[in-house]
Amino acid sequence: MRAKLEYIHGSPSLCNEFRLSTLVAALVIFYAMLRNSAATAFATPLEPNSFARVLAGNITRSRCDTLISDERILAVEQHFAANKVDPSSSSAAAAAPINIYFHVIREDATLVGGNVPDSQIQAQIDVMNEAYAGTGLTWTLAEVNRVDNANWFNNMGGPGTSISREMQVALRKGGAADLNVYTVAFTNSGLLGYAAFPFDYQNDPDIDGIVILYSSVPGGTTVPYDLGATLIHEAGHWVGLYHTFQGGCTAPGDSVDDTPPESSPAFGCPVGRDTCRGGEVDPIHNYMDYTDDSCMTDPFTPGQVERLKAMMATYRDVTF
């Protein structure tokens, strides 16, 4: 048997050389597969709902439930390009400060029951104006509406749910240029907030607004989301901005040229994080990411400002 094996495979030295070359080839193939797998992981965005959960106030919550598919974005951007109104044109109405109708949905008149005090509401408006100072957009508190409804307060669902529509249809005030904010507990859905996009107003004006967790306003108890950045973030959607990680590392991403691509949302405040190769570090300090409130310190980029101005002129008929 040994003689036959030597006849088939050659001398022992040749046999060893063959085995060594085979091993090297296998390692090369494995390394190539590993690199390809890693590149795919960086380039492919996660499914939206697979990364939306965060720990806030000892409860696992969804940082933002304002989600939009890449397929829908394609249709939206085509419509936007074909119908875009120049913010500097006279065809759009000049904007006064955006009125905010603040609907405090509560279980009872206590703070834990959702009765957000006027001081916290004003603090929220103040931090919004600070965040949007470089955009030309300003916000003003038009009215505070306190509503006793334990069902809405505790059982509020995500966008498009029947209970969300019921509440907004019953309470919404104003037109396309007026922002309606609703604070609830999200007791059974574990959300932090969600918003309507400006391009949805024409087809469904009744649910044009923002719903947020009542304890995410400045001075709230939902650490580390207690400085008011939840409403700043959701207002970004309301004026037409996507998440910075929209589309992952693949163009056009969030449809803004000067926000670095990001494969997935950032949590906490991971300085130096870089999930897309060949570009800048991730925009973890941008309001349209998922980081802690205290990490969201950068102003909106010039590209984001340009986009939100055009979105507001096109779909809300306002310029600023």
Automatic annotation (TrEMBL):
UniProt entry tagged with the keyword Zinc = yes
Question: Per the UniProt entry, what species is this protein from, by scientific name?
Answer: Moniliophthora roreri
Q: What is this protein called?
A: Peptidase M43 pregnancy-associated plasma-A domain-containing protein
Q: Which UniProt keywords apply?
A: Disulfide bond, Hydrolase, Metal-binding, Metalloprotease, Protease, Signal, Zinc
- Extract the SUPFAM superfamilies matched here: Metalloproteases ('zincins'), catalytic domain (SSF55486)
What Gene3D superfamilies is this protein classified in? Answer: Collagenase (Catalytic Domain)
Recorded hits in Pfam families, A to Z, give: Peptidase_M43
What does the entry give for GO biological process? proteolysis
Record carries keyword Signal = yes
All copies of domain Peptidase M43 pregnancy-associated plasma-A, residue ranges: 226-312
Q: What are the GO MF terms of this UniProt record?
A: metal ion binding; metallopeptidase activity
Q: What family does the entry list?
A: Belongs to the peptidase M43B family.
